């Protein structure tokens, strides 16, 4: 069984996207989780600093910039 999660990431393709999994979502079908990410992205608009994408687990989160 494939497991999918939503990842909060940089909308502008930066080198340090500081990705995080969206928490507190039940295990949903790929179709349902795609719809959730699409709704959020549409609502926050294309100029938002963040973007929500669906990934299949296992997935390695990309870190943020650490000075």
Evaluate the radius of gyration.
Answer: 12 Å
**Widest sheet, order of strands:** 2-1-3
Share of helix, binned: 10-25%
**Element string (H = helix, E = strand):** EEHE
Number of strands: 3
Number of domains: 1
Distance between the termini: 39 Å
Main structural class: alpha+beta
Low-confidence stretches: none
How would you portray this structure in words?
Helices cover 22% and strands 24% of the residues. The chain has one helix spanning 30-44, and strands at 4-10, 20-21, 50-56. The radius of gyration is 12 Å and the shape is flat. It has 67 residues and is an alpha+beta fold. It has a three-stranded antiparallel β-sheet, covered by helices on one side. The chain has one domain (10-56).
Task: Give the SSE map.
Layout: E1 4-10, E2 20-21, H1 30-44, E3 50-56
Quick recap of the structure?
The protein is of the alpha+beta class. The chain has one helix and three strands, in the order ββαβ.
Key features of this structure:
alpha+beta, 3-stranded antiparallel beta sheet, flat, 67 residues, 24% strand, single chain
């Amino acid at each position: 069984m494939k497991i999918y999660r939503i990842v909060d990431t940089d909308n502008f393709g930066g080198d340090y996207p500081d990705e995080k999994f969206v928490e507190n979502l039940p295990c949903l079908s790929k179709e349902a989780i795609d719809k959730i990410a699409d709704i959020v992205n549409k609502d926050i608009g294309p100029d938002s600093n963040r973007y929500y994408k669906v990934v299949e687990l296992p997935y390695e989160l990309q870190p943020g910039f650490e000075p």
